[in-house]
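Morning run. Coffee first, then this:
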Amino acid sequence: AIACEQRDALLALVVQEKPDVIPPVVYFNGPTTMFLNYGLKTSLELSACQQFNQTNCWAMAWDEEDEDLSSEILVTQHCWDPRDCYACDIASATQGICLPNRYTYDFTVTDKAGNIGGLYLDVVIMERANLELDIAITSKALSTDEANTEMANIRNPGSNESFTLRSALVELLDSSLSKSGGEQVRLEDVVILNVTTGRTPPWIIPPVFTHSVSFKVDVYTAIPTVTQRLSRHRSLLHQRSLKTSNVVTALERRSAEVSDALLIATQPNREGVAP
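And here it is:
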């Protein structure tokens, strides 16, 4: 037989609750990465919900023991790298006033047992930027007439020369912008503004001709280094001379291909051509 005291002790062990070690779960009413336009307000609401299954908000929380914890969610900006972190609270992110960049927000909630659950939201602020780039291309022309023909072909938007140059620039910018959340650059977004041609002094034989080409490119970008210094006036369209060494160097590496394209134009017999 079991004494009454022993029976009571055994019953207490049976009904003893297990400790709550399961953290609450945070849910979003949308994706974990949002793309917004700089300078434009949006009706999107990225704040925490007041109750579960609410739709005009972004984050909800549920706990197995405490159930709905949506109203307890805390939202803080998270900086992965303090050296590249710009202040932008979650309310300002949808108002078009935060500088172009990638911002991360930490949605966290704590249950009564002290378990913490959370989820990150990335907000990428994109800016419409108008970039300008000047590059110099060494020509293979042997005469002024040939160089002038090349220059005319580069200026013609429908020519092979123009297509080759603009395609090379699109490829290079796509590679750079994609690393920071930029949208794909289209060929029609690249315009050749002007082309000028120079040559070495007359006493240098054979002459060397150089084409200076000015480009304009419309892109959406979230690169802080492109926009940070230019965004003080909150302008949506910026003019910037993009002369970064990596882009210029990469384009110069394509100069041989560009020069070959320039030779597609009908050229006279080189034998006996005077410089």
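The chain has a mean pLDDT of 75. Good start to the day.
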